[in-house]
Design brief:
By secondary structure, the chain is of the alpha/beta class. It has three domains: 137 residues, Diaminopimelate Epimerase, Chain A, domain 1 (Roll); 53 residues, no CATH class; 183 residues, no CATH class. Keywords: Membrane, Transmembrane, Transmembrane helix.
Length: 405
């Protein structure tokens, strides 16, 4: 008999108890606190399962959505599944078989200042209370409004500290003193919450099928050129279908965003037709991703909602998917430092003075990181796939694809 898979082992554990805690995390949620939480589960309108395992790039589990989906499938029961939110110590909730505002409840707790110093048990208890009372969405909106009000009173500055690659805050140290550190902490928390809200806003529309599914990049990074070309072609076709189904907005800002989406679609199609290798095909996905971000924002604005914050793809290799971390990076042989955004794995490698898994192109017949290709011949090297310049779509449309200016 074959060994059970990790998902099957977790499902088996959840059949014995609705809370599973990895042994490495046992101290974070003692058994007495688990019993108290399980007693609360009986009041919930749906079964609740808590799966607390480390989410680590390259480990058994690296993605919260995948973890919840696999365990739900192996367990064969619908309900609310609570996990850590990717590599952070915040909590995320997903549910099958009903709508009990569980996701909003988890987001509300993650964003609530009052829960910053709460224990893991207290955070879980608060999420369950919101699910039981059916007030998860109301609380999420309340906390969001409070954060927006604070952000409007203190705009983000270039010196605001940014989250590090593990989701924490990279706060400046040294001569600023206690008052400066406190101010930096406030700015850092506001910036962190702003980005968490941006992430939440994107997740709100993922289910509507407008944003590019992140599963695209799970296969794109492993594809050969022919497979990537086929995938890029499918994404361009699907994006065109989305545009055909979208009515022309009357709102001026929504119209501007819609025009950008249409331009991105044209640029993606043009790039696909001329693509001569993987760097160009990666560019197709970048352009589709930018266009679908613009389309999502256009639809949101047309409904009177805020724009959906765009999220670039990894600077070092767009096929890695979303960039989650901003960092100052100095190319080899250059004195200039660039502000780029990268996926968590590439950011960690760079900060550890290691070479990230970069997308390669050719220069004088030899493979080099794409950004070291001749910028006079590569629009991707010239623009960093849109991260070093904001006019990537315009450049493609004016004919710079194989002749950057």
């Amino acid at each position: 008999m074959s060994e059970p898979s990790p998902g099957e082992r977790l499902a088996a554990a959840l059949r014995r108890s609705p809370i599973y805690v990895d042994p490495s995390l046992a101290a974070a949620l003692p058994r007495a606190e688990r019993r108290g939480l399980i007693a609360k589960f009986g009041k919930a309108p749906a079964p609740i399962f808590v799966i607390l395992v480390p989410l680590v790039a390259g480990g058994t589990w690296s993605d919260a959505k995948e973890l919840a989906t696999v365990v739900h499938d192996r367990l064969g029961r619908d309900g609310v599944f609570i996990t850590f939110d990717d590599s952070t110590d915040e909590l995320a909730a997903r549910e099958w078989g009903g709508e009990h505002q569980a996701r909003d409840a988890a987001w509300a707790v993650a964003l609530d200042r009052a829960m910053d110093d709460a224990s893991l048990a207290d955070k879980l208890s608060r999420i369950i209370d919101l699910i039981v009372s059916g007030t998860g969405t109301r609380e999420y909106k309340r906390v969001s409004a409070e954060i927006r009000a604070r952000i409007s009173r203190r705009p983000e500055t270039r010196d605001s500290p940014a989250p590090d690659e593990d989701g924490g805050l990279a706060l400046p140290l040294g001569a600023a003193g206690a008052a400066g550190a406190a101010a930096a902490g406030v700015a850092g928390l506001l910036l962190w919450r702003r980005r968490r809200m941006a992430s939440a806003a994107r997740r709100d529309v993922e289910g509507e099928g407008v944003l590019m599914p992140r599963t695209v990049f799970e296969t794109a990074s492993r594809a050969n050129e022919d497979q990537l070309r086929e995938q890029a072609s499918r994404e361009v076709i699907h994006f065109g279908e989305l545009l055909d189904e979208t009515s022309t907005p009357t709102n001026e800002r929504a119209g501007t965003l819609m025009a950008r989406a249409l331009d991105a679609y044209q640029a993606a199609g043009k790039t696909l037709d001329a693509a001569r290798g993987i760097p160009d095909l990666a560019g197709v996905l970048v352009l589709v991703d930018q266009g679908r971000d613009a389309l999502a924002s256009a639809q949101a604005v047309a409904k009177g909602k805020p724009e959906i914050p765009p999220m670039p793809l990894c600077f070092f290799n767009p096929l890695h998917g979303d960039a989650t971390t901003k960092l100052d990076w100095r190319p080899l042989g250059s004195r200039e430092r660039l502000r780029v955004e990268a996926c968590r794995t590439c950011a960690r490698a760079t900060r550890n003075k290691q070479t990230p898994d970069v997308l390669t192109d050719t220069r004088e017949g030899r493979p080099v990181p794409y950004y070291e290709a001749d910028p006079k011949k590569s629009i991707w090297a010239e623009t960093g796939y849109g991260q070093l310049r904001e006019d990537l779509i315009h450049r493609v449309l004016r004919g710079d694809l194989n002749n950057p200016r």
